[in-house]
Task: inverse folding
């Protein structure tokens, strides 16, 4: 379905285990009500210095839940705060990753957000006089 001439899809990201996964059902419902036809999600990853910034932030803003949140992230990332491996980096693995995946799939189906986005370049046009290379 198109809203105007734009096909609407939703990407939830990042889902923060222990902090934001409970929001998935409401987000998917709101997206469906707004005309979205497909949805996806990514799980939080904390590469390099981002892990230090996030740990500081979570301890400052959620001191009562910081350890729970960080332990949930580690549980989906094989004991680490990041996993760059293809196939697991986007959704994680283990009990909590599977639980979040099931919640997402259940509500995606409930709100009929199952259509695959069709990508096309048919509506793009190149205007030679405004092309980037014309600057050089």
Result:
């Amino acid at each position: 379905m198109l809203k105007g001439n734009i096909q609407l899809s939703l990407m939830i990201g990042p889902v923060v285990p222990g902090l934001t996964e409970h929001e998935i059902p409401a987000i998917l419902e709101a997206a469906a009500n707004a005309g979205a036809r497909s949805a996806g999600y990514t799980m939080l990853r904390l590469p390099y210095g981002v892990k230090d910034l996030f740990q500081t932030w979570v301890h400052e803003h959620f001191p009562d839940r910081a350890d729970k949140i960080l332990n949930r992230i580690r549980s989906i990332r094989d004991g680490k705060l990041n996993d760059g491996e293809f196939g697991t980096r986007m959704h994680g693995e283990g009990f909590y990753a599977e639980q979040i995946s099931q919640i997402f799939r259940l509500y995606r189906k409930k709100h009929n957000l199952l259509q695959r986005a069709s990508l096309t370049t048919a509506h793009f046009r190149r205007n030679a006089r405004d092309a980037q290379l014309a600057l050089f």
